[in-house]
Please model this.
Amino acid sequence: MTRSHPVPLPRLHAITDERVARRTDLGEVASALASGGGAALAFHARGRSLSGREHYELAIRLSAFPPARLFVNDRLDVALAAGAVGVQLGAASLEPETARRLNAVWWIGRSVHDWEEAQSARAAEADYLLVGPVFATATHAGREPLGVERFRAIARLGLPAVAIGGVTAERVPELRAAGAYGVAAIRALWEAGDPTGTARRMIQEWEP
Model:
């Protein structure tokens, strides 16, 4: 089903975790990332152990760098309150159909880790997939990486597939060639020596 969204789905997704959310330089790094990514960048307010208030405050801080977009992971109440343009749902989250009742024009993504989960997300009418880990990553040290070929099979299902897990600027061309609509990262963006330049490099593959 084709849906109308007020903005395009960003190509680059800068995802937070609890550690990033509590950094004193969060605003400074976010501003630098936004300078490099512009409207092609989405900030994801994410942090599983954050309180509702902390999650909301994180979302508000990340919404301050237009034209970069705000997405919120799992907390649909926070997404509504903060004016997010998209939400990212995990396996234990509500179904996309339920989220869509709250806001019909949200971009609604589903996190998937294999082809079967990707099929289920497509059947549940998610708008896009966050697929990973594609490469080995300390964030999910105990999970076997998919690798590029299994990612390619998921991308062929037809939904925009955003690759996550061990993603670096150097790996973006290979991922795009495998069918990635975009890429997502935590460390490669938030810990970059040059956040502006790194964000710019990671979206250049999709620029005309």
Remarks:
- The first helix runs from residue 18 to 21.
